[in-house]
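Work Package 3 (structural annotation) set out to generate three-dimensional models for the target panel prioritized at the project kickoff. During this period the team completed the workflow that converts sequence records into discrete structure tokens, so that structures can be stored uniformly alongside our sequence database. As a representative example, we reproduce one entry of 308 residues exactly as it appears in the project archive.
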Amino acid sequence: MRKVHLISVTEPLVLDLALALRKKGYEVSASGVGLSEETIGRLHDAGCTCYGDGWFPERLGKDIHSVVLGAEVKQDNPELSRAKELGVLLQSIPEFLFQRTRLKTRVVVAGSRGKKSILSMMVCALRRQKLAFDYALTSEVDVLESRIHLSYEARIALIEGDEHVTSALDKRFQLEFYRPHIAILTNLAWSEETDYDTPEAYLSTYNSFSKSIEREGKLIYYGGDPAVARLADEVRSDITAIPYDRHPVVERDGQTFLPTRYGDYPVRIPNPYFLMNLNAARLACRQLGVKDADFYQALSEYSLSLPL
């Protein structure tokens, strides 16, 4: 059984990773400053080792296979320093997740808007077809019990491509690590609140993301965003670039329908971007073997269950 230690379990994604690894059978220890009794209790109940609130560098030993750093870990963290002294493998969360999914078909959803919605739709369609999948998300998706699920049997991994800095050890951005087989790129909107000083730096990261797509991969992109369209025009010749736009609808007897070659499917539209996100999810699911007719049925049921 591999032993993994996670630093900064106060970060929700790190906590969910700890619980997912324990569920998969890893021997897991975790630490953080500002841990609540509830969080410590969750870790203990799951079978993870946690010595309490604070850092415990003296507890780290050479029997640890790898130490995984949360994004908020500082260079002077005492456990990070101890891990360096021991010479154990140090990994950021994106690096670690890539290694855990390297033999799976990775679908990475990236962009400034719509990632959570697209992933929610894909989850519903894949579940309806009883297709097993792993996932690693930075957002909370209502239909999933946590942000991370890892298994041995699933051949598909859904990943939310985060554009923030990876860790104290690596100033690259998280979505640069995942090397998708299927990439979805929604739109690009730089703002001063991002980790990027300039729009050019922001676009450069997404250019690196598009170049990281695996050979013979797919780029599903929103054609209505000029910056995204330019990136799609510049991808390697082995990558298939597939544009999407807003899915058409028809109104009849006070009800909205998706008109398709398989019939009209009733749908509820909760926001202006829903129909664009739906098309992105449909095209991605098609690449995973979900027929359009089955996708439309799943999405009709999904949308009608959404609150008004």
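The first strand starts at residue 3 and ends at 7.
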